[in-house]
Amino acid sequence: MQLHTHEWGAGERIAVLIHGIMSDHRTWHRVGPALAERGYRVIAVDLRGHGRSPRGDYGPELFADDLVDTLPVGVEVALGHSLGGLALSLAVERLRPRRVIYSDPAWSLTGVRQTVDPAVFVTFKKADPTVVRYFNPRWDDVDVDIELATLADWDTGTALALSGGHLRDRTPERPVVPSLVQIAGKGFLFTEETGKELAGRGFEVRTVDGAGHTIHRDDLPGFLAGLEGWI
After folding, report:
1. d(C-alpha 47, C-alpha 164), whole Å
2. What is the pTM of this model?
3. Residue 139 has pLDDT above 60, yes or no
4. DSSP per-residue letters across 180-213
5. CB 85 within 8 Å of CB 107
6. Ranges for the AB hydrolase-1 domain (predicted)?
7. How many CB atoms lie within 10 A of CB 164?
């Protein structure tokens, strides 16, 4: 499937951005320009079932296949958040970027801090500004408005296809290319122990203290500082 893409900048180096569930390229509205200022041509996708991309069947492997069908091979850096991090890890061997950044990737939702079934995200489809602000107290009004817009364009079938019997640990055994895992200090996917385990597998691991799961929207300066040497 050819995915909808949005671009910032016109540099010779290419960076690709892959969003998490319920979102689309608009989640990167500050990150894209920040990377463009650093000399990148930035390509952000809408995963299938999100934003302006087509609908269809859903599953981690399909999300990954779409990235391979849409993105250029051998880019300078690829960055995936949450579900985007999972899809990127399943596509990385084929895409072969020079460097990969996994920002709080959704590799396992089973029993790290607590089991999270993605089916619960369906309830957010009808979220109002009060709900979005409650779960994301550090977001400004622009990000709240963007979240409401992306929820309106999101197919809840993407969450259902990841739930129930589809839940399993997909943590990579090793990095395929040099890889950074950026962990949210106040997230729900990783603990100090799991971070050490990832480091033992060959990943560089950095934590952004105080940030929730969507690090780039909670703390953009902390997010960018945590990528020093990788972007």
Report:
1. 21
2. 0.95
3. yes
4. EEEEETT-SS--HHHHHHHHHTT-EEEEETT--S
5. yes
6. 16-218
7. 10
Residue 145 reports pLDDT greater than 80: yes
Which neighbouring-strand residues pair with 6? Answer: 44
* Contact of 99 with 80, CB cutoff 8 Å: no
Q: For residues 86-115, give the mean pLDDT.
A: 89
pLDDT, tens digit, 9 for 90 and up, residues 119-138? 899 999 999 999 999 999 99
Task: Tell the residue number behind the tokens 């999101």, with chain if given.
Answer: 154
Handedness of CA 116, 118, 120, 126 (dihedral sign): positive
Angle at 62 between CA 5 and CA 6, to 5 degrees: 5
Question: Partners of 43 in the beta sheet?
Answer: 7, 16
Tokens of 65: 């296949």
Kindly provide the residue ranges of all beta strands, DSSP E only, lying in the chain, ordered along the sequence.
Answer: 5-8, 13-18, 40-45, 77-81, 99-103, 179-184, 204-208
3-state SS, residue 99: strand
Neighbours of 115 (CB within 10 A): 10
Name the burial class of residue 81, with classes exposed (0-12), middle (13-18) and buried (19+) by CB atoms within 10 angstroms of its CB: buried
Closest listed residue to residue 104, CA positions, set 223, 193, 229, 6 = 223
CA distances from 206 to 100, 124, 196 (A): 13, 29, 10
Tokens read off for 196: 């050490």
